[in-house]
TrEMBL record:
This is Spermidine/putrescine ABC transporter permease. It comes from Amycolatopsis thailandensis. PANTHER family: PUTRESCINE TRANSPORT SYSTEM PERMEASE PROTEIN POTI. The chain crosses the membrane at residues 9-34, 69-89, 101-120, 132-154, 190-214, 234-254. It is a multi-pass membrane protein. Belongs to the binding-protein-dependent transport system permease family. CysTW subfamily. Gene3D superfamilies: MetI-like. Its main location: membrane. Residues 65-255 form the ABC transmembrane type-1 domain. One of its GO terms (cellular component) is plasma membrane.
Length: 268
């Protein structure tokens, strides 16, 4: 389809406007993390690294960062195991209710976070009698991180087909050997991409975490929310928000590059 010059300019303008709406506020946060003016006058009259130094020494922010990393890594590990197993079960086998099971696996990421949070809070405290803490937050994060891993692995399995695995087994390899030498090497990039996306999703999550994390614990997003309107903490909050932006961007970028790796068969 050939587009007129006017149409191209309109589409380009719409693209630039859309990107500006999304990324200009993020750029402001990054610049304000270096803004020497505590009132954040715009444009910044001068820049400083003082706020970054204070953020690096802020005990609350560092504890929240540690909690976020622990929750993200644990939820990602659970998601990699369960998401991969679910993907193999639904892609390799045909059984009654297969499509319905696939829908149930994907559904948690589509539900409103507040609904998921309330449901899990009630389940942990009322039905199971478990006190809220880091463990409950990890389980809550894993419920939606599994979806990311599942989608990545299913997509890769569909592209792979089964010819190489069948050829391996025809040559005498058992199921475990075929998985280790054929299937897993072709899945590595999809697993890594899914893991990176799951970690980024867990690291940024705030609504479900609010309902499932015990008192006295904070993840980095919750720490930002709790300190956002404290004037003496505002410069440090901007630094932590800038770190959060960078920490979220890198995994998503790497996952996008790895997910697009179709020509190498998933080799890293």
């Amino acid at each position: 389809m050939r587009l007129s010059r006017t149409t191209k300019y309109i589409l380009l303008a719409a693209l630039v406007l859309g990107l500006a709406v999304i990324y200009f506020p993020l750029l402001v946060v990054l610049l304000n993390s270096f803004n020497a003016d505590t009132t954040f006058g715009w444009p910044p009259s001068s820049f400083t690294l003082e706020w970054w130094g204070r953020a690096a020494e802020n005990e609350g922010a560092l504890n929240a960062l540690g909690t976020s990393v622990q929750a993200g890594l644990a939820a990602t590990a659970i998601a990699l195991v369960l998401g991969t197993m679910a993907a193999f079960a639904l892609q390799k086998y045909r059984f009654f209710g297969r499509n319905q099971v696939s829908l149930l696996i994907i559904l948690p990421i589509a539900l409103p976070g507040i609904v998921t949070g309330i449901a899990l809070n009630n389940a942990f405290r009322t039905i199971l009698g478990i006190d809220l803490g880091l463990f409950t937050a990890i389980v809550a994060h894993a419920t939606f991180c599994i979806v990311v891993v599942f989608n990545n692995v299913v997509a890769r399995l569909r592209r792979m087909g089964g010819n190489l695995e069948e050829a391996s087994m025809d040559l005498g390899a058992d199921g475990l050997t075929t998985f280790r030498l054929v299937t897993f090497p072709m899945l590595r990039s999809a697993l890594l991409a899914g893991g990176l996306l799951a970690f980024a999703l867990s690291f940024d999550e705030i609504i479900v975490t609010t309902f499932t994390l015990g008192t006295g614990l904070e993840t980095l997003p919750i720490w930002i929310l709790n300190n956002l309107f404290r004037p003496n903490q505002a410069p440090i909050v901007n630094v932590v928000a800038a770190v959060l932006i960078l920490a979220s961007t890198v995994p998503v970028y790497l996952a996008q590059r790895l997910s697009g790796d179709t020509t190498s068969g998933g080799r890293l």
